[in-house]
Amino acid sequence: MTDTLRPVHVIGGGLAGSEAAWQLASRGVPVVLHEMRPVRKTEAHDTDKLAELVCSNSFRSDDAEYNAVGLLHEEMRRCGSLILRCADAHKVPAGGALAMDRDGFADAVTEAIATHPLITLQREEVAGLPPEEWDSVIVATGPLTSPALAEAVRDHTGEESLAFFDAIAPIVYLESIDLSKAWFQSRYDKPGPGGTGKDYINCAFEKDDYRAFIDALITGEKLDFKEWEKNTPYFEGCLPIEVMAERGVDTLRYGPMKPVGLTNPHKPERRPYAVVQLRQDNALGTLYNLVGFQTKLRHAEQARIFRMIPGLENAEFARLGGMHRNTFLNSPRILDGALRLKSLPRLRFAGQVTGCEGYVESAAVGLLAGRFAAAERLGQEISTPPVTTALGAILGHITGGAEAETYQPMNVNFGLFPPVDDKIRGRERKLAYTRRALADLDGWLKN
C-alpha cells in the first residue's frame, strides 16, 4: 500500500517536524522532510542537525505524577515519540529534570530520520506557500520561519503574526568554575532521570554582592532593538535576566536565583542570600549552562557581569547569551481542531509556530500533526486525544481554548485541563490530574 500512497510533505526539521515525520513514517506513510539548513541559516542555530536545541538542553521536569510537563513526557513515550526516545537515550544528570547532551540528542534524531526507508530528507528552503500539488503539508518551521514562507502565510490568512523575543542562556566550561566557592547539589537533594541529587553547580551570593550584581545587570550595556522589534513583547516564561532585575531588587531571589532547598557546604551556618544554579549541558560533563540567565546584554558586558558571580570569577564561556525574535500564528482563530489552516486545509501547522511554548510542547504538537496527517492519508477518521490528557489540553488551547484576541505562547500546565474534584487539594489534586490523563490516554491509544 505504501507504494501507492502520495507522500506527506513536512517543512522544518526541528523538534516538531522531526516528530511529525517519524509519526507518519511509523504508520506506513511516506514523507518528504524539507529542512532549509544549511542552505539557509537562522539567527539561532549553529549546526545543520535535525532537532538542534538552540537554548536550554532541558525538557524540564520528568515527574509524571505531579508535574504537567512530566506527564506530557510520559504520554509521548506511550505514543512512540522519537524525540522522547532520543532524549532518554542521551540524558545527563539534572536533578528532577530530563536534560540531555544536546549534540548526542540531535545526532540520534538526525540518524533516525535520515535512515528511515519511508523518509526522504531534502535540504532546501520552501520559499512561499507549498506547491498546489502537495496535497498534504505539515508546516513545522518553528519560531524562526523563513521570511518568504511567513509572509506568504500572512498574506493568505490576512492575519498579522504575533511575535515575542526568546533568549539564550550562556554556557561555561566546568574547569573554569571555582569549586572552592561553588558546590554540587540539586534543590532539596532531589535525584532525577540519570541524576544523583547533586546534579547542579550552585554559586551563592551574600547580600551586598547580590545587590551589586543586580545594579550591574540593570546598568549593563544591552543590544539595541531594531525599529521593527521595539513593540514586540517578551514571553513571560523566558524573560531576560536583566528585565527581571529591573522589576525589583528581590525579583531574582524569588525566581531563578531563589536560595531555598540548598545548603552551602562552605558556609553551612547560614542560608545563602541568593543562588545561581548551573546545569550540565553535555554528556561529558564539561559544559554547564546558567539556569534562567537568558540575556540581551552585549557579549563583553555578559563576561564582565557574570564573572561577578561567586565561583565564576575566572569563568570561560563556551557560548554567551543572545536573543532572537520568534513569530507564531493566531492559532485559535485560523486553525481547526486537527491543526489544519481553515482557509487552506491541505496545510497543517505544528510546533512553536502554532503558539505552544517549550521544547516538549512543540514536539508534542508535531506528534499530533503527524498522527492526524497519517490518518487522513490512510483514509481513517482523525481521532483527537481526550482533553483530560496533556496532549489534548495543549491541542485544545491552541485550536480554540485560548482567547484569539489575547493569544500568547503557553507551556503545558494543569490550568489547561478540565478540573478534577474540587475537594482534592495540593499534591493529591495534581496526582488526580495525571492518573486520569494516563488512563484516558491509554483508552484513546487502544481505539
From TrEMBL:
UniProt-annotated binding residues for FAD: G12, G13, G14, L15, A16, G17
All copies of domain MnmG N-terminal, residue ranges: 8-380
SUPFAM superfamilies named among the record's database cross-references: FAD/NAD(P)-binding domain
PROSITE patterns attached to this UniProt entry: GIDA_2
UniProt keywords, alphabetically: Cytoplasm, FAD, Flavoprotein, Methyltransferase, NAD, NADP, Transferase, tRNA processing
Compartment(s) where it occurs, according to its Swiss-Prot or TrEMBL record: Cytoplasm
InterPro entries (alphabetical): FAD/NAD-bd_sf, MnmG-rel, MnmG-rel_CS, MnmG_N, TrmFO
EC number(s) given by UniProt: 2.1.1.74
NCBIfam families recorded: gid_trmFO, PRK05335.1
Function description: NAD-binding protein involved in the addition of a carboxymethylaminomethyl (cmnm) group at the wobble position (U34) of certain tRNAs, forming tRNA-cmnm(5)s(2)U34. Catalyzes the folate-dependent formation of 5-methyl-uridine at position 54 (M-5-U54) in all tRNAs.
HAMAP family: TrmFO (MF_01037)
Protein name: Methylenetetrahydrofolate--tRNA-(uracil-5-)-methyltransferase TrmFO
